[in-house]
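BUG: 3D viewer hangs when loading the predicted structure for this chain

Environment: internal workstation, default settings.
Expected: structure renders.
Actual: progress bar stalls at 90%.

Input used:
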Amino acid sequence: MNPEPRNPYNLFLIGYRCTGKSSVGRSLSEKLGRTFIDTDSLLVTEQRMSIKEIVGAYGWESFRQMEHVILKNVCTSDGQVVATGGGVVLSEDNVMLMQKSGKIIWLKARFGTIKARMLQDKDTQTFRPALTLSDSIIEIEETLSAREPFYESAMNLCVDTDDQEIHVITNIILEKLKTSEKKQR
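Structure tokens produced before the viewer hung:
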């Protein structure tokens, strides 16, 4: 059972790369009049390096520690929409932080959708480091499959982003939040 978050709670968007966390997060924050935060962007600004450069210089373990510190700082404030890094759920401490300070929304997409979005995303090669030693297509499949149980375990709500426009995904989230709040009363 997830601990009850504070009110006004944060909304954390989790999911694999290119599932829409940043785009949907901005849209959701505008609709709700909340501050939007992208933890990867905060980390890049703080370190003055791209994620790819951070991982190259310090390794994944150090990156995950930095990510945890950023998330911990974000969780000291309320009423935000927070786009997280794709691997944030790999840390149980991160999941607990998010559960205590908000609701976790898993933006889910099929392998084919993610692959197509990554191939179209100009930032993928420059800023998104490889997660495994496999080629990028095999990596997506392997990493997505390994992470899905973590996303499922952490989330309060799940929204499918396949074949959906950002404004539609935003409205689906708002409707699901309304429904879940009615059930809690």
